[in-house]
């Protein structure tokens, strides 16, 4: 069985932390996953942050989104 963490795991953990109102830090990601090197988690969290910016900019482009 391979060791380590994947981008998908880090992205899912970071998304869950956003939903829970928690900070997305390397330490928090590693604690949530229970594994992963700081170097790998840092790199993957940076990738997630870049993708988050893209996802948010796409949401902002939606026409006439009704209020809650």
The number of E-state strands comes to 0
Which structural class do you get from the secondary structure elements?
Answer: mainly alpha
Oligomer: single chain
For the CA atoms, what is the radius of gyration? 14 Å
Terminal Cα span: 45 Å
> Percent range for helical residues?
55-70%
Kindly report the average pLDDT value: 87
Beta-strand percentage?
Answer: under 5%
Number of helices: 3
Shape verdict: elongated
Major β-sheet profile = none
Q: Which blocks of ≥5 consecutive residues have pLDDT under 50?
A: none
Order of helices and strands: HHH
Explained architecture:
Helix content is 66%, strand content 0%. The chain has three helices and no strands. It has 68 residues and is mainly α. It is elongated. It has helices at residues 7-20, 26-33, 38-60. The longest helix is centred in the C-terminal third of the chain and has 23 residues, at 38-60.
Describe the structure using short key phrases.
mainly alpha, 3 helices, 66% helix
Give the arrangement of secondary structure elements.
Blueprint: H1 7-20, H2 26-33, H3 38-60
Helix pairs in contact: 1-3, 2-3
Compact overview of the structure:
With 68 residues, the chain is mainly α. It has helices at residues 7-20, 26-33, 38-60.
């Amino acid at each position: 069985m391979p060791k380590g963490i994947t981008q998908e795991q880090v992205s899912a953990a970071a998304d869950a932390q956003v939903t829970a109102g928690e900070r997305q830090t390397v330490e928090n990601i590693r604690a949530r996953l229970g594994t992963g090197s700081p170097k790998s988690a840092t790199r993957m969290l940076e990738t997630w942050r870049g993708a988050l910016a893209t996802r948010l900019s796409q949401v902002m482009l939606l026409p006439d989104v009704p209020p809650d």
